[in-house]
Write a structure and sequence with these properties.
Layout: H1 7-10, E1 18-22, H2 27-38, E2 42-47, H3 52-60, E3 65-69, H4 75-89, E4 94-97, H5 117-129, E5 134-138, H6 151-171, E6 177-183, H7 190-202, H8 208-216, H9 225-236, E7 247-250
Parallel strand pairs: 1-2, 1-4, 2-3, 4-5, 5-6, 6-7
Helix pairs in contact: 2-9, 4-5
Pathway: Lipid metabolism; fatty acid biosynthesis
Keywords: Oxidoreductase
InterPro entries: NAD(P)-bd_dom_sf, Sc_DH/Rdtase_CS, SDR_fam
């Protein structure tokens, strides 16, 4: 009779862990929230608004999911979110730095948004706790290449990839892993806005850009939020303890690196 060693599978769970997920109320962030809960974590969702979908999720995981209004560009909001997380769940093991803003305009009309203040604040908590923390940043295939109409967005995501590498080296002595996930084109409600912007600037009909980018993916279709979740769970679990400073592409083959 074969005896199954569960030690390996246990390394892929998030049982007993507490995660902060920024921008976790909708789209890919909501999928992360649900995926982490199903993997065994307790989750504090930080977002600028709640959603019916998140409220439904709270009903299903009332003991393990909390929500706090938080603008990650505002230090008081960050401090409050961290305090609420520690009070409710006792500590912070994982930060999924997902909150982002998509902006499209010609270079001369665009502006840059910064939203990484929560990174350093949570890292300090993890250092104080002296636990094996995991920080996952959300990059994008846009950070791997330039695009004329989204120059600042591409630059910000390239900065996320570079920042992930530097932060990983800085936090390695404290046994805190820092990695990033780089999605490709993902079918979320935001794509309605993105498609409309491309239609405006490229003279396309509504839906044309979305259909085209899906066909251009080597696997032949746009990803769904659930397609991104597995990588985020893996990088938050103990199965990835020896992985740091990396950016994992989850893009259907769009970027090869």
């Amino acid at each position: 009779m074969n005896v199954v060693n569960t030690e390996y599978m246990d390394r892929f769970t998030l049982n007993g862990k507490t995660a902060i997920i920024t921008g976790g109320a909708a789209g890919i962030g909501l999928a992360f929230s649900e995926g982490y809960l199903e993997a065994g974590a307790s989750v504090m969702v930080c977002d600028i608004r709640t959603t019916p979908e998140l409220e439904d999720l709270q009903k299903r995981y009332s003991d393990h999911l909390c929500f706090t209004l938080c603008d990650v560009t505002k230090t008081p909001d960050i401090d409050r979110a961290i305090a609420e997380t520690r009070k409710t769940f006792g500590g912070i093991d994982i930060l999924l730095n997902n909150a982002a803003i998509f902006d499209m305009a010609p270079l001369t009309e665009s502006h840059e948004q910064m939203y990484d203040k929560i990174f350093s604040a949570v890292a300090k908590v993890m250092i104080e706790q002296k636990t094996h923390g995991k920080i996952i940043n959300m990059a994008s295939q846009a950070g791997r290449r330039g695009e004329a109409l989204v120059s600042h967005y591409c630059a910000s995501k390239a900065a996320v990839i570079s920042y992930t590498q530097s932060a990983a080296l800085a936090l390695a002595p404290y046994h805190i892993n820092v990695n990033a996930v780089s999605p490709g084109v993902v079918d979320t409600p935001m794509w309605k806005e993105v498609d409309a912007l491309f239609a405006r600037y490229e003279g396309l009909k509504p839906g044309e850009k979305k259909a085209a980018v899906g066909r251009q993916v080597p696997l032949g279709y746009m990803g769904k939020p659930i397609d991104i979740v597995g990588a985020a769970i893996f990088l938050a679990s103990s199965a990835s303890d020896y992985i740091t400073a990396q950016t994992v592409n989850v893009d259907g083959g769009n970027v090869m690196s």
